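Model it.
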Amino acid sequence: MFPVQLVVVDSLAAWADAVAALPAAGPLPSRTVLVPSERHAHALRRALVRSGRAAILGGARFLGPLAAAAEVLRSAGTPFQPGEGALRPARLLSLFREDLPLAHFDLDLLRTARGWHAAFASAIADLEAAGLGPDDLPADIPALRDLALLWRRGAEEAGASWSAARVLREAAALLSRDARAWPFAGPALAVATGHETAALARFVTSIPSLTLALRTARPITERHAARVAALFGAEAALRLRAACRAPIAGAAPAPRSERDLLAAGLLADPAALAGPDRPRSAGPDGTVALEEHAGVDAELEATALWVTRQVLEARRPLDEIAVLVPSQDPLAQLVADRLERLLVEGRPLAVHVAGGVPATSTAAGARMLAAVRALR
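Modeled.
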């Protein structure tokens, strides 16, 4: 593990500030930013452009941790093929047909009962994400000895086909041996929430010249702080505790609107909310509206009206509009169906449901379900 510079970020603007603060120099400064997804990269680029720092994007590369780990291995000439995680269940199912010397599990049961191959694959994936290998399992427990045997045999069959966790682990080991294996020039920044796997955290902390941006988690719990300490060190947990438990007012400027006040206090530590010196609303200013409706139908119509005003009157981009629902099913589908009936410039409104909707909620999905039931 290399020395890591720590910063705490509690908003997209602070994240963009951390990217801009990376100490890159030269006629074309080079920066590497590890992001969880392309959506985060897009949001960061937009935040930098809107804050007048578009020039930073000229030498900044945004990529996911897995892509960065794969590039480390490819640059070092390590032969591998990603995607073993999807192939492992079928590989285990094939192994069940062999005469394996299992001490705990019944081979006939594994061969005839459904789902055992998927259960073993899921267990191996969890252990691998935790940074463990088959040799790390205790040999004095028959069930774990069988699991280690299947894991080891599956890895032998896979050869150069590696899971995502193994790609991260091998890249971290390579960087720990030789920092020059990092193929990207300039400093790097990675965001951490504390929910990362051990394999991912080990890879991130093995990157040289790294700035680790810790996302705040309010309210902060001791369990979460302990996990951050285990993944990224005690100093990271201390910094996160201090940032999350600081009074809302703190050193930051007071919220300028009711919406800013709501954002500052949402999920804040109860002690901070109870503080007598915390910022308080001076009265309605139009940024937050509280409404009550008679039922789901009225809520759907009010939602459609609010979205229409945001799109047609405020001319707000669609990627800045979000509708939050208390439960995914069936409310998300109902809201999406209602919004898709809105017309914007003569075309239906484009709607994205994070997490997706049940396949059976569509006509094609319903026909598929009917066919499966008929065959059964």
